[in-house]
Amino acid sequence: AGAREDTFNVLDLAEYTKNRPWWRKVFGPSSGSSAEKYNVATQLLIGGVTGWCTGFVFQKVGKLAATAVGGGFFLLQIANHTGYIKVDWNLVQRDMNKAKEQLKFHSRGNKTSPEVKSRVDEVIIFLKKNVILTGGFAGGFLLGMAS
């Protein structure tokens, strides 16, 4: 009776996923460049429609946020003026100066971690592979912001 020796291949998933772009990890192996899947007109249409929707929503949310911040500041000024609250503006100014100094300090280092750099490189590669789709999205986004 002979002993049967089976051989198994070991797949290191950590190493395997390090060398794959993020969009392939999310959407699967068939998610290559959209240029491989669609013609130029379809890419422009998809990019334009999604860009317009994104720009339109971005514009509406931006207006809502500006109204909320402006209204909040206006109510704060009214409450301060009528005496309901007392704002220590010197303390606010001092805290703002501290925040500015911290931002200057962090921006001086200007060292980007390798993980962030690799993600940025992946996004740039994706955008280069999908130039038509990206152009359509940018144009649609600007139209959405204007409408």
From TrEMBL:
Provide the topology term for how it sits in the membrane. Multi-pass membrane protein
Superkingdom classification of source: Eukaryota
- Does the keyword section mention Nucleus? yes
Record keywords: Membrane, Mitochondrion, Mitochondrion outer membrane, Nucleus, Phosphoprotein, Transcription, Transcription regulation, Transmembrane, Transmembrane helix
What is one Pfam family matched by this protein? FUN14
Q: Which N-terminal stretch is annotated as signal sequence? A: none
Q: Which GO terms describe its biological process?
A: autophagy of mitochondrion
Iron keyword on record: no
Q: Where in the cell is it found?
A: Mitochondrion outer membrane; Nucleus
Task: From the record, give the transmembrane residue ranges.
Answer: none
What does the entry list under GO cellular component? mitochondrial outer membrane; nucleus
Question: What role does it play?
Answer: Binds directly and specifically 1,2-Diacyl-sn-glycero-3-phospho-(1'-myo-inositol-3',4',5'-bisphosphate) (PIP3) leading to the recruitment of PIP3 to mitochondria and may play a role in the regulation of the platelet activation via AKT/GSK3B/cGMP signaling pathways. May act as transcription factor that regulates SREBP1 (isoform SREBP-1C) expression in order to modulate triglyceride (TG) homeostasis in hepatocytes.
Family the UniProt entry places it in: Belongs to the FUN14 family.
PANTHER family assigned: FUN14 DOMAIN CONTAINING (PTHR21346), FUN14 DOMAIN-CONTAINING PROTEIN 2 (PTHR21346:SF5)
User: What name goes with this protein?
Assistant: FUN14 domain-containing protein 2
Could you tell me which species this protein originates from? Answer: Sapayoa aenigma (broad-billed sapayoa)
Tell me the organism's taxonomic lineage: Eukaryota, Metazoa, Chordata, Craniata, Vertebrata
Name of the gene this protein is made from: Fundc2
